[in-house]
Amino acid sequence: MAEHYFTEDPSSKRSIKELTVDIRGFSFKLLTDRGVFSRGKLDRGTKLLIEAMNLEGVKRVLDLGCGYGPLGIVAARIAPEAEIVMVDVNSRACELAIWNIKENQVSNAKVILGHGFEPVRGMKFDLILCNPPIRAGKSVVFPLITEAKEFLSPGGRLLVVARTKQGSKSILKHMAEVFDVAEEIEKGGGYRVMEGSASIIGLP
Ligand SMILES: C[S@@+](CC[C@H](N)C(=O)[O-])C[C@H]1O[C@@H](n2cnc3c(N)ncnc32)[C@H](O)[C@@H]1O
User: Fold this and answer.
1) How far apart are CA 6 and CA 89, in angstroms?
2) Is 66's C-beta closer than 6 angstroms to any atom of ligand 1?
3) pLDDT for 51-87, tens place per residue?
């Protein structure tokens, strides 16, 4: 099978590249590599999601499909009191995310290797951030969105970014089926950020 950014153990020759990312008033040095999503540059969708994410009052955040870690690491810096959990299925991505957490002296984030919500069973999050693996297909992405609801605390939010021309419409439609409220909160550069909110009274 061809290697993708969501391959569990990439075998492509390593070629580490360091990025400098200035965003939300902070500067980060982030390592990326072959076999990991968006090597060599911050993805435009990731950037839009970072710019749109509101971390006010959040205590626990999940970066679902963290890749080399940009969403979780920036969230950790913006909300130093919050606990950030980062999960990815790709071992090389997790290795880089751990390295990037250390390099940027972030003390409130951790990385767990695993599939979807499996590593965080039993936990609840105020905010789930996801730049989903669109290339893996709807059969992977939609169940992640559906399952997210179960992992949100009352009033919690799921933020998803997608390309306008690559599934954003169907993702928003699916979010509207799953969540009490689903809406587009930001758009730009060919991407859209969508938010699904859990009811403030929680699941029955
Ligand atoms: C589009 S990339 C986004 C990476 C990173 N968040 C960013 O914005 O640069 C999607 C990520 O989801 C991961 N992924 C794919 N399927 C997954 C699953 N079932 N569970 C956890 N992570 C998964 C991929 O390995 C990839 O790193």
Assistant:
1) 7
2) yes
3) 999 999 999 999 999 999 999 999 999 999 999 999 9
CA angle 40-42-43, nearest 5°?
Answer: 110
On whether the CB atoms of residues 46 and 131 are closer than 8 A, the answer is yes
Q: What is the pTM of this model?
A: 0.96
> Taking 60 as the threshold, does the pLDDT of residue 203 lie above it?
no
Question: Which atom belonging to ligand 1 lies closest to the Cα atom of 4?
Answer: 25
Residues 6-43: tens digit of each pLDDT: 888 888 889 999 999 999 999 999 999 999 999 999 99
Q: Phi and psi for 23 in degrees, rounded to 5?
A: -160, 145
- Is the CATH number 3.40.50.300 carried by domain 44-197? no
Measuring from atom 9 of ligand 1, which residue has the nearest CA? 67
Q: Ligand 1 centroid vs 204 CA: distance in angstroms?
A: 30
Q: Is the CB of 46 under 6 A from ligand 1?
A: yes
Distance between CA atoms of 23 and 47, rounded to whole angstroms?
8
